[in-house]
Amino acid sequence: MTHSILSVCLGNICRSPAGQGALQRALPGVRIDSAGTSGWHDGDAPYAAMQEAARALGLDLSAQVSRRVQPQDFTRFDLILAMDAQNLADLRAIQPKGSPARLALYLDAMEKGPRDVRDPYYTRDFNGVMALIDRGARAWASRLQGDSGQLHCNSAASPNAS
């Protein structure tokens, strides 16, 4: 059963905070957090343009604070969702041996579409990225809840998950 999910991108100021907000809305009652694979922005609020795009979809990211992924995250979270293939590779490289966390791409629950959430910090497409992240969160909610409405982790991981 999935009780906790960590959303991860590079700097934890754009994609993963948006993922946290979208997942919190899609999966009430599940503990959701976000982090970055780098510590470049530790202590910073989400990027203003990302917050604006999130607000347009009814999400408030203003209380979030950037942090770096820690070794204990691999035991604190059941499912860790990386925004792109590089983030996933970075997570696999630092995942402690024997940790119970399952790793997957944030968009793995979607049947069609891209596999990576491109970084809007560089593309400047904050609204498009926010819409994609929101669709990904709803896909995870559907996958994790299944037909019973109960949260299940065993059906959460795609073939790409470890």
| N- to C-terminal distance | 16 Å
Instruction: Name the CATH superfamily classification.
Output: Response regulator
Query: What is the mean pLDDT?
Result: 91
Strand content: 5-15%
Our count of helices gives 6
Structure class: alpha/beta
The name of the CATH architecture is 3-Layer(aba) Sandwich
Q: What does the main sheet amount to?
A: 4 strands, parallel
Poorly predicted runs of 5 or more residues: 154-162
Strand order of the largest sheet: 2-1-3-4
Percentage of residues assigned to helices: 25-40%
Any descriptors?
162 residues, alpha/beta, four-stranded parallel β-sheet, disordered C terminus, 12% strand, Rossmann fold, globular
Describe the protein's architecture and organization.
The chain has 162 residues and is an alpha/beta fold. It has a single domain, classed as 3-Layer(aba) Sandwich (Rossmann fold), CATH 3.40.50. It has six helices and four strands, in the order E-H-E-H-H-E-H-E-H-H. Helix 4 links the parallel strand 3 and strand 4. Helix 1 crosses helix 6. The C terminus is likely disordered.
Question: What is the fold's blueprint, element by element?
Answer:
Blueprint lengths: L3 E6 L5 H12 L4 E6 L11 H9 L16 H4 L2 E4 L2 H10 L7 E4 L14 H4 L2 H20 L17
Parallel strand pairs: 1-2, 1-3, 3-4
Helix pairs in contact: 1-6
